[in-house]
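Need residues for this backbone.
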């Protein structure tokens, strides 16, 4: 009994230490970003920085407007989620509810392999395969339009497609686990009442797994908002209005592109860009956490 009590106390202490380290890490990152990111807000001005649309940090009269950069991140992530989540959810339904064991194993292995591919490989494939296709599409759409600035296919649309592909493994894996966790008696009850298999999946199983699916969406949004390398390679890297065929720059690629040579106020503003990104991720997590809790209450 003494040995058992000692093991339990030791395990409890280890778990408590791990939890404390996690909380400390979040608090430390938050404090660091606030300390490093707020000075530029005072020097440049909140309205000029967040709502200005001109980014010229090296000009004689520098401008630090990041509105288009913020919009590119939000629109790119939103469009990628609209494309990726339905595909990921339907794939998860197929793996967990419809596919045979062998096929499900193959698809699941492919999804895991997709998750293991480095971001730079996605970017490289995007540059060599996707961008040329987008350039051909751009030529078709803007044929004869001399006012359009051609991007060679490195544009917002390419970035959205790459992001949608990159979030698939996260959404599929989490959604599959959540759907499989739904109790079989719910399926049996639905089928016993005369529902078809498809009706049971979409009206019983998916609502019951909604909490876990939302978790996958949160993780997918975090992946899309935080991606830098692949987007830096396929999006063109210019500060523009985030239209489908415009070359754009996101919050993450902004930091990656200029931090190596930035100094003074320019460097401070880049830390503010990081702070804005951090705040967006926190807001998204908070909103979806509330939605998840509301879904759990409705399920009860």
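Answer:
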């Amino acid at each position: 009994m003494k040995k058992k009590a000692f093991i339990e106390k030791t395990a409890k202490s280890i778990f408590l230490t791990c939890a404390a380290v996690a909380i400390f890490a979040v608090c430390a990152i938050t404090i660091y970003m606030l300390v490093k990111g707020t000075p530029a807000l005072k020097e440049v001005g909140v309205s000029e920085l967040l709502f200005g649309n001109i980014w010229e940090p090296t000009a004689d009269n520098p401008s630090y407007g990041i509105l288009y950069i913020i919009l590119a991140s939000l629109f790119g992530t939103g469009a990628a989620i609209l494309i990726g989540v339905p595909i990921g959810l339907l794939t998860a339904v197929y793996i967990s509810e419809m596919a045979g064991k062998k096929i499900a194993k193959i698809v699941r292995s492919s999804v895991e392999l997709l998750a293991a591919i480095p971001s730079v490989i996605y970017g490289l494939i995007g540059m060599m395969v996707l961008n040329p296709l987008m350039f051909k599409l751009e030529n078709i759409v803007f044929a004869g339009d001399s006012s359009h600035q051609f991007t060679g296919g490195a544009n917002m649309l390419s970035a959205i497609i790459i992001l949608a592909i990159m979030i698939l493994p996260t959404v599929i894996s989490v959604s599959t686990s959540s759907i499989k966790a739904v109790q079989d008696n719910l399926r049996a009850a639905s089928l016993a009442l005369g529902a078809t298999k498809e009706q049971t999946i979409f009206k019983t199983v998916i609502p019951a797994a909604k909490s876990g699916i939302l978790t996958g969406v949160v993780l997918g949004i975090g992946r899309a908002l935080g991606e830098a390398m692949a987007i830096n390679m396929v999006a063109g890297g210019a500060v523009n209005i985030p239209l489908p065929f415009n070359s754009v720059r996101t919050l993450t690629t902004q930091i990656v592109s200029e931090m190596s040579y930035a100094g003074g106020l320019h460097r401070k503003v880049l830390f503010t860009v990081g702070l804005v990104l951090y705040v967006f991720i926190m807001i998204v997590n908070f909103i979806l956490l509330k939605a998840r809790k509301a879904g759990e209450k409705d399920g009860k």
